[in-house]
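The step that takes the researchers longest sounds almost clerical: writing a folded protein down as plain text. Below is the pair of lines this work produces for a single protein:

——
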Amino acid sequence: MLHRNGLLLLTMVLTVAVAYAVAAPAPQAGQDIRITNGPVIEEATSNAAVIAWSTDVPSSSQVWYGTEKNNLTHSAEAPDNGSKTHRVRIANLKPNTTYYFQVESSQRHGNRGEAESAGVRSFKTTAPGAHPVHNQNAQLVENDRQAGDVEGGKVKITNGPVIEEADGNHAQIAWSTNIKGSTRVTYGTDMGNLSQLAEAPWGVGGLTHRVQLKNLKPGTTYFFQVETGQAAGSEVESHIFSFRTPNAGEAALHHQQPQPVR
């Protein structure tokens, strides 16, 4: 009798445990990180700025910025120290100049995707000798809807492409568009056969697109075409351009305009 009661009790416990496991919420794998506060300009001087924001989970801290709102080609970041509070210092700025930026946080080894501030914001550096600005709200100059970040928007390339960096075996190609979209580069050593593909995750970098080409050969001319599109069908392709990787031992290329060939 005691044995039967014990089995009955064990069966009930297991049944409750299984039911709870089925009803319990699933882990939030793939869910995007959320920005919970900011971004704000904690400090701005004539040649530097500190931008801060908070997220709901620990994540990385990166700022994309530039002097044109559709060309955020510069980046600054802080060490990933496992914090929900993010502070990035941008140095070597010009005095009395308006800068545009977006912030980005991601979990490179986590399961929560990434977060990007909504729209493009701006701040202005002070004049030489002026008092620094503290704890200023960053002005929203163009939100995602104004930028056309909706399905069906017409994608246009607004800047580039440029060869941001290239050595004998790698190259980084960048360009900007008026709205977010995919980031793809087709390339090869034959202009008529761009059969290789390199791409970056959708939306990374906002309106600025960057793709790494790997396993290239030194001293070789490569042809390429960049492409950005949206799920609704609108897409844009660049002309075909070319660049040459440096020979072994030669200096790497930086911010070089590629040659249009077609």
Summary: The chain has two domains: 35-142, 157-260. Helices lie at 2-23. The first strand starts at residue 35 and ends at 44.
